Amino acid sequence: MTDTLDQLLRDAAPVTDQQVRALALDEVEAELREALVAERRPGPAKRSPRRRRSLRLGLSGLGAAAVAAVAVVIVSLAGGGEQLGTSPERAWAKSALRVANAVPRLLIGEPGWSITRADEFMVDEGEMTFRKGSASVDLHWRAGSFRDWVKDRDNSADELPSVEVLGASARVFRYQGPFDDYTALWRSGSYTMEFRTGYPPRLSLAEYRRLLGSLKTTGVDDWLAAMPPSVVLPANTGRTVEAMLAGIPLPPGFDKAALKRDAAVRDRYQLGARVAGAVACGWIERWVEARRAGDTAAAAEAVEAMQTSRRWPILLEMRADGEYPAVLWNFAAAMQGRARVPAGKPTTVERAYRPALGC
Fold first, then answer.
1. How many CA atoms lie within 13 Å of 253's alpha carbon, on the beta-carbon side?
2. Residue range 63-90, pLDDT digits in tens
């Protein structure tokens, strides 16, 4: 049905705001809103579960123009009022559009701030970092209980006067320490939003409050286009995965397609860890099974392949930004030697590789 609606919306004549207002869609709109909220997956324990509801709307009896109008309503409800038509939004992958149409699309209104990091862009949750010079702030969205997040912050920080953010009252908290660390929580539709100062140097309270108050909503295309070059959008994931795998020996039966189907919008470092980790996990799993079976040739092949990891281009690129390459290299060295890795206390490769490498 979704593909049919998309096609009808593309093919139908444009529907004006006046025509949409003339349709008796109040009841339909309420039903769609409830269904869209109810369809989100349950999250971690802190999030309150949502009951799934059926969408009691019969589309089969509607004409093409009415179907197009209903499709416009769906997009408007999910994405804060923007209507997707023949504009450049179509250049983005469907999975990216799904997230962008569902979550609050916020950018900092003060000049000079840009997005430098974006991780795990999902309908249920996501986060991104804004930076200006050496200062940074993080913005999170979570489809969970606002009360639980406020209670958690209230237990570990001092509450300060609230700040108005796009018509909502944001609860502001300060963590005491060498640097004052500020965070704010507010409700936006079905989402709990959090805006927190990043790594030192910290912002002053006045700067933070001004920045918080400058947040603005934006359109789908502008929001996705604001993502930095290091962020890999789903439309580009396939090509990026292929490039990251260049120069890396792949274990037998390795599934490139699964990596290319990644639905998230993630930072390049995070995607690199996913790609390199999938290869390493494949070789380690082969090594573990070969040792159990007494297949010395297969075990030696896996060890040799993992020794090349110190030359994998994506790991060499990543090592300046995080510890994932070093962790992976520890496992490669352990496979060649005593088959033990440091993890608080020494442990075996077999026990540690899955949680450590994200297998």
1. 5
2. 333 333 333 332 333 333 333 322 333 3
